[in-house]
Amino acid sequence: MIITIDGPASAGKGTLAKEVAARYGLAYFDTGMIYRAVGLEMYLSHKNLDSEEEAEKVAKDLSFAKMISLSEDADFRSPLGGKNASIVSAYPKVRNTLLKMQQDFAKNPILPDGKIAKGVVYDGRDTGTVVCPRADIKLFITATAEVRAQRRYKEFQSKGLTISYEEVLKDIIARDERDSKRSSAPLKPAEDAFIIDTSLLTIEQVREKVFKIIDSH
Hints:
Blueprint: E1 2-6, H1 13-24, E2 27-30, H2 32-44, H3 52-60, H4 64-70, H5 79-88, H6 92-107, E3 120-123, H7 127-131, E4 137-142, H8 145-158, H9 165-181, E5 194-197, H10 203-216
Parallel strand pairs: 1-3, 1-4, 2-3, 4-5
């Protein structure tokens, strides 16, 4: 079984995807990690983030081992890491280069303990429209920009990062605009996706809705 969980930044995709994977014994793939890895590698190597060609070269050299190594850097999940990931993910050449890596995982999904899984949960933007357009279940998780900014702000606070709510909101709005206007795979739900607005829902309520959808299939 292949399940995709798509949606804008900070909508709650990651938390939900991990819970779905654990409940149904499926592998978990965070596609956002790939773009964060490319963006961070460019930043650390002092490469020009405005150059699609340079970003493409970094993407072609990316391996799972390199991605895991970069994920240990303090900036991987920081506001800077998110901004850089959003920039490089808008480049068609980067997306095309990394698409095969994402799709190949579905052919041989692996659990953290090394065992073969019966399927995979993809967490990330355009997973239901581009990465796995034939997924068994497609979910599109969304919320207002203000709600998503508040969630991300609290997350940064818990990690001891100094940033204002206004800065977080500004970044969320900018990322939404980049994602929705990019020429390659703009952010939008798949035609057959289940759309869930989490703005006024608790985590428990979202989980209940999603589990009900999956169980019915």
